[in-house]
Amino acid sequence: MNSKVFMAIRIILGLFVLVFGLNKFLHFIPMEDPTGVISDYFAALINSKTLTLVAIVEIVAGLALIFNKFGALLALILMSVSVNAVLFHATLDPENIAPAISLLVLNIIALYSYKDKYKNLLN
């Protein structure tokens, strides 16, 4: 992949997860109040501090990708957040799945672009 294209994708992914990670603490993007099963799901994530951990992972991954420091490692760790976001939206909130799919696609592209860094892990 062209290095300038990869840099653009890496920065877009980094900004995407950094903004959503910071939003979990600062609440600058207005969100609808969850209802029903979604409310119960988020209550469990908040009470178990899982949402805080996800926010920290997103912030660290975003900074790592933007500054290209440990990007390969954080793109791999971020994959668990991406898959869970898609699964959450596919099962509980399908009308809002587009950003989660965008996150997953950008993450897969980043992983593919870092494939040389993973060769030793796969041998």
UniProtKB/TrEMBL annotation:
<feature type="transmembrane region" description="Helical">
    <location>
        <begin position="41"/>
        <end position="66"/>
    </location>
</feature>
<feature type="transmembrane region" description="Helical">
    <location>
        <begin position="97"/>
        <end position="114"/>
    </location>
</feature>
<dbReference type="Pfam" id="PF07681">
    <property type="entry name" value="DoxX"/>
</dbReference>
<keyword id="KW-1133">Transmembrane helix</keyword>
<dbReference type="GO" id="GO:0016020">
    <property type="term" value="C:membrane"/>
</dbReference>
<dbReference type="InterPro" id="IPR032808">
    <property type="entry name" value="DoxX"/>
</dbReference>
<keyword id="KW-0472">Membrane</keyword>
<feature type="transmembrane region" description="Helical">
    <location>
        <begin position="73"/>
        <end position="91"/>
    </location>
</feature>
<protein>
    <submittedName>
        <fullName>DoxX family protein</fullName>
    </submittedName>
</protein>
<keyword id="KW-0812">Transmembrane</keyword>
<feature type="transmembrane region" description="Helical">
    <location>
        <begin position="7"/>
        <end position="29"/>
    </location>
</feature>
